[in-house]
Amino acid sequence: MNCLLGPDGQIPHFLGSMVNLRYLNLSGIPFNGRVPSQLGNLSKLQYLDLGQDTGYPGMYSTDITWLTKLHILKFLSMSGVTLSGIVEWPHTLNMIPPLRVIDLSWCQLDSANQSLPHLNLTKLEKLDLSGNDFEHSLGSGWFWKATSLKYLGLGENRLSGQLPDTLGNMTYLQVLDISDNGTTDMRMTGNLENLCSLEILDISINGINGDIAVLMKSLPQCTRKKLQQLDLASNNFTGTLPNFISDFTRLSILSISYNSLVGPIPPQLGNLTSLASLDLSNNLLTGSIPAEVGKLMYLTTIDMSRNHLNGSVPIEIGSLINLISLDLSNNRFTGVITEEHFANLTSLKEIDLSSNNLNILLNSDWRPPSTLESAGFASCQMGPLFPPWLQRLKTNGLDISSNALKGKFPDWFWSAFSHANYLNISNNQISGSLPTHMDGMAFKELYLGSNRLTGPIPTFPTNITKLDISNNTFSETIPSNLEASQLEVLSMHSNQIGGYIPESICKLQQLAYLDLSNNILEGEIPQCFDIFNIEFLILGNNSLSGKIPTFLQNNTDMKFLDLAWNKFSGRLPTWIGKLVNLRFLILGHNKFSDNIPVGITKLGYLQYLDLSGNSFSGAIPWHLSNLTFMTTLHKRAASYISQPT
Q1: Whether residue 530 sits in one domain with residue 589
Q2: What does the pLDDT read at residue 638?
Q3: Residue 639 binned pLDDT confidence (cut-offs 50, 70, 90)
Q4: Is the pLDDT of residue 634 over 60?
Q5: Which of 52, 98, 247, 477 could lock 80 by a disulfide, CB 3.0 to 4.6 Å apart?
């Protein structure tokens, strides 16, 4: 169908002459311009799909009354077509009684609270209005009259208030999605008693308050036996998970993350034998994981991270043959993880046990039953030496930070993980040096900070985006051939790196964070006129000299500039006032002289200013008092600010 795209990219008008057409699907074709009203000539049309990719807002219409000529239209999708400014769109659609499906999602519609005294859309089964600009009460929408609906999508608007009692008349409703309305006063007080056909309920990301048990109890028994997906994530629900959660026997997806639930996970959860995805993360749950979870043989995803769960991890988890992702990180689990926990996890791709007090005790010849894509064991215990079974993980991502590992990297280590994209070994006690050449490895993120590594800095992979080798004892110089054009974060602070900052650092055009502080670097900062993205430049406590480089003056994104304890000299440039987003300016203990530029008083977001230990002269600018984020200055230094003359 892409052959329809002419030189102007618009829907060709000749389509309006194909008067016998019954089916027209132009979805996904990147048309632009006005939707031609000639499509209204297709009086025999039953199916019309003009849906656009939401990332390509190319088509628009300011008048859709031509739709009323399509007297037998059953399916209409204009998803992604800009319809902003069309107010009476419900009245237009109400003149096409045969409609069964209406998709006007992401159309920039302003409201859905128009008055329709009589609704003609008695056959309407699906209505998707998600992703528009509705900013009115939820209960005022005309769509609550459409009692034939099976699907109602209202997500990603700005609707507020409570569900109306008329919801109870929608007895055919199978899917109700009112997620992500960005409100704080939505209330689930509507009549839910008659929703016996409901299979999917998504009210996530709405800031809804209330007791979780009260909400679940408001769903009648007929709904509990029917419901397959329940998403309550990112609200303000409190209380404990009720024991009668076992009534929801057909649930395949249960998400209650990012709430304030307390208390234990009820063992009755084990009765939800159809459950495929369980997300209880980011709550305040306590107690242990019930062994009954091991009965949920269809589970593919478990996320219980960021709670206060304790006790040991039940070995019954090892029987979940379909489990793909397991995240128990950031809890208070104790005890030992053994081969039994992995016994039948043949589908496992992702595991994260980080930030617990677990001891990973696996036999040296243990082989994982599946090929892991990522493994997180941060703050667990698996040392003091590198366990041999690590070399058999063959994972794309590994986090073994804060594991009390000691000694040198084993001979097999770098070959075993040369294809990994993510590797975090920071905050251990690893000694020795790195391989001379690492440029052939696949790392995109490599964290080796806070160890006891020594020797020269090797060449790193050219596709790396984040590199941290800080707080070690690396010596010699920064490699002169920095070729990592995608590097965003580079942290080498607190080593013994000497020499000059190489000119090749100017090739790092995506660099946003650079920390070379606490080394023995000397010379001037290279003039890198192509680096505009840097937000954090931290070079303090070296022996750098010269002036503040002029390439910084156009960098309005900069938030943190630390050049303290160096040998910089000359006047502070007046253009420093252009760095309007600067939060921290630390220039103390250098050789700066002359006046403090008045432009510094334009840094309205500045929170911390250190100019101490320099050779400034003249008056301190009185308008420093305009820096309202610097409360410390107001309290302690106001009496030292010179009065204007």
Answers
A1: no
A2: 38
A3: very low
A4: no
A5: 52
603 contacts 625 by C-beta, under 8 angstroms: no
Q: Is the pLDDT of residue 58 over 60?
A: yes
Q: What is the mean pLDDT of residues 412-425?
A: 95
**How confident is residue 55, by pLDDT bands cut at 50, 70 and 90?**
low
Across the chain, mean pLDDT equals 92
Residue 83 falls within a domain, yes or no? no
Environment class of 636 (CB within 10 Å of its CB; exposed 0-12, middle 13-18, buried 19+): exposed
Supply the pLDDT for residue 538.
98
Residue 286 in this model has a pLDDT that exceeds 60: yes
Put the strands of the sheet holding 332-337 in their side by side order: 310-311, 332-337, 357-360
Mean pLDDT confidence for 557-585: 95
Burial class (CB in 10 A: 0-12, 13-18, 19+), 363: exposed
DSSP track, 75-101:
EEE-TT-B-TT---HHHHHTT-TT--E
Instruction: Provide the pLDDT for residue 190.
Output: 66
C-alpha–C-alpha distance, residues 489 and 536, integer Å: 9
| pTM to 2 decimal places | 0.90
Burial category of 547 from C-beta neighbours within 10 Å (exposed 0-12, middle 13-18, buried 19 and up): middle
Domain boundary pick from 489, 513, 546 = 546
Q: Which domain holds residue 522?
A: 443-546
What's the token pair of residue 207?
Answer: 């800031």
pLDDT of residue 630: 76
* Whether the Cβ atoms of residue 85 and residue 109 lie closer than 8 Å to each other: no
Q: Are 474 and 516 within one domain?
A: yes
Mean of pLDDT values over 499-517 = 94
**Helix (H) / strand (E) containing 561:** strand 560-562
Cα–chain center distance at 376:
18
- The four Cα atoms 617, 621, 625, 628 give a dihedral, to 10 degrees, of -90
Left if phi > 0, otherwise alpha if psi is -120 to 50, otherwise beta: which for 407?
A: left
Say whether both 573 and 522 belong to one domain.
no
What CA–CA distances, in Å, run from 1 to 11, 12, 30, 121, 276? Answer: 11, 12, 11, 31, 38
Q: Above 60 in pLDDT, residue 590?
A: yes
Q: Are residues 541 and 473 in the same domain?
A: yes
CATH of the domain at 542: 3.80.10.10
Number of folded domains in the chain?
Answer: 2
**Domain shared by 534 and 450, yes or no:** yes
Do 471 and 523 belong together in one domain?
Answer: yes
Quote the CA–CA distance of 181 and 489 in Å, as a whole number. Answer: 34
Side chain identity at residue 571, one-letter code: R
pLDDT at 184 over 80: no
In a domain, 396, yes or no: no
What residues have CB less than 8 Å from 195, skipping those under 6 apart?
167, 168, 170, 171, 173, 176, 219, 220, 223
Q: Does 641 score more than 50 pLDDT?
A: no
Region at 589 (left for phi over 0; alpha for psi -120 to 50; beta for the rest): left
Q: 79 — phi, psi (to 5°)?
A: -55, 130
